[in-house]
Amino acid sequence: MKNSGFIFVNDVNKDRLRAVVGNLHRMGVSNAVVSNYDARSFPTIMGNFSRVLLDAPCSGTGVISKDPSVKTNKDDSDITKCSHLQKELILSAIDSCNAQAANGGYIVYCTCSVMVEENEEVVNYALKKRNVKLVQTGLEFGVEGFCRYRQYRFHPSLKLTRRFYPHTHNMDGFYVAKFKKFSNQIPKPDTSVEEVAEVEEVEEVAGVEEGTGVTDDAEVTGVAEVTGVTDVDTKDIKTKKRPHDGNEDKSAKKKKKKAKREDRPPKLSMQQVKKYQKRKQQPGALVRPVAGLLEKKRKVTKFIKNKKENAEKRGKSPKSQAKKFKRPNEKKKSTNEN
C-alpha cells in the first residue's frame, strides 16, 4: 500500500499487541491504527472496511512440529469451541466489510490448523449465512480444499480454497479461503415447512380466483360445485375476498406485537452497564456486544447534558441545587449531648 490509506490492526491480547507495534515500527508502517477489542463486536464499533484479513484463533494442529504439546493438551471439546468462535468471527468480519467499496469487498480467512471442523466447515457456514462467494486465492501451490470428507458434504466451490501440509510443502500446516461479498444485506433465515405450505395454499387460491376470470353466475356456480363451496361463499369468490374469522385477526395481531417486542433491545440497568465495562477492561476478555448498550449510554449522557443546561439557565450549579436535610435522629442526639 506504500503507506497510503489506513490499516486497522486488532488483537484481543494486549501482550501480543506489543510485538505488533514493534513490527510496525521496524517495517516503517505509518498508516496503521492498533486497537484492542473483541473482534466479534467490530461491526457495532467500526466497519465499512474495503478488505478484511481474519487470522482466526485455532487449535494449532498445523504447528505441532513447533509445539508438540498440542497433541496432548487439545481434545475434541477444544476443537468444537474453536469452531464455534471462528464462526462468530467470520460473520463479524463479513459484516464489517463493505461490498460496494471500489476494488474491495474481499475477506480472507486463514488458520494454522488442518482440522476440517475449523476450516471447511466454517467456510461452508459463512456461505450459508451471508451473501458471499468464494474466489481464487491467487496461490499457485497448495492442495484444494475438501468438498467431501467422511460424513461432511460441502459446497463444490470449496475447491477454490487452499490447504498446506508440513510434510508436502515444507511449511506449517495452514488453510486459506478468499471471499467476495456481493451484497451488504443479511439474508433472512429459511421459513419453516408450515409457512411455506400456507404460502402455497394462498397462491393456489389466488390463481383460482384470478385465472378463471369468472363473470357470469353460471360459471361461478360451476366452480362452486367442483370445489365444494357453498352458495354463501360464492359471493366472496365474485368479490375476490376470502372469508375470515375474528379469531384469526386477533391471533395475527398478537403475533405482530410479539415480533415487535422481540425486535426491541432489552432494557439495561446502570448496574449491568458497569458490570459490562468492568469485564471489557480485563486483559484478554472475550465479551459479547450487549444489545441496547449504546442506546443506554446515549440516554444517560443526554440526561446529564439536559440537567446541566437547565442548571445554567437558572444560574445555579447542579450541586447547589441539592438541599441538605437533617435527619430527626441527629437533632435528638445533639440535645442529649447538651
UniProtKB/TrEMBL annotation:
<dbReference type="GO" id="GO:0070475">
    <property type="term" value="P:rRNA base methylation"/>
</dbReference>
<keyword id="KW-0949">S-adenosyl-L-methionine</keyword>
<feature type="compositionally biased region" description="Basic and acidic residues">
    <location>
        <begin position="306"/>
        <end position="315"/>
    </location>
</feature>
<dbReference type="InterPro" id="IPR023267">
    <property type="entry name" value="RCMT"/>
</dbReference>
<protein>
    <recommendedName>
        <fullName>SAM-dependent MTase RsmB/NOP-type domain-containing protein</fullName>
    </recommendedName>
</protein>
<dbReference type="GO" id="GO:0005730">
    <property type="term" value="C:nucleolus"/>
</dbReference>
<dbReference type="GO" id="GO:0009383">
    <property type="term" value="F:rRNA (cytosine-C5-)-methyltransferase activity"/>
</dbReference>
<dbReference type="GO" id="GO:0003723">
    <property type="term" value="F:RNA binding"/>
</dbReference>
<feature type="binding site">
    <location>
        <position position="11"/>
    </location>
    <ligand>
        <name>S-adenosyl-L-methionine</name>
    </ligand>
</feature>
<dbReference type="Pfam" id="PF01189">
    <property type="entry name" value="Methyltr_RsmB-F"/>
</dbReference>
<dbReference type="GO" id="GO:0000470">
    <property type="term" value="P:maturation of LSU-rRNA"/>
</dbReference>
<feature type="domain" description="SAM-dependent MTase RsmB/NOP-type">
    <location>
        <begin position="1"/>
        <end position="182"/>
    </location>
</feature>
<feature type="compositionally biased region" description="Basic and acidic residues">
    <location>
        <begin position="327"/>
        <end position="338"/>
    </location>
</feature>
<feature type="binding site">
    <location>
        <position position="55"/>
    </location>
    <ligand>
        <name>S-adenosyl-L-methionine</name>
    </ligand>
</feature>
<feature type="region of interest" description="Disordered">
    <location>
        <begin position="234"/>
        <end position="338"/>
    </location>
</feature>
<feature type="compositionally biased region" description="Basic residues">
    <location>
        <begin position="296"/>
        <end position="305"/>
    </location>
</feature>
<dbReference type="InterPro" id="IPR001678">
    <property type="entry name" value="MeTrfase_RsmB-F_NOP2_dom"/>
</dbReference>
<keyword id="KW-0808">Transferase</keyword>
<comment type="similarity">
    <text>Belongs to the class I-like SAM-binding methyltransferase superfamily. RsmB/NOP family.</text>
</comment>
<keyword id="KW-0489">Methyltransferase</keyword>
<feature type="binding site">
    <location>
        <position position="38"/>
    </location>
    <ligand>
        <name>S-adenosyl-L-methionine</name>
    </ligand>
</feature>
<dbReference type="InterPro" id="IPR049560">
    <property type="entry name" value="MeTrfase_RsmB-F_NOP2_cat"/>
</dbReference>
<dbReference type="InterPro" id="IPR029063">
    <property type="entry name" value="SAM-dependent_MTases_sf"/>
</dbReference>
<keyword id="KW-0694">RNA-binding</keyword>
<feature type="active site" description="Nucleophile">
    <location>
        <position position="112"/>
    </location>
</feature>
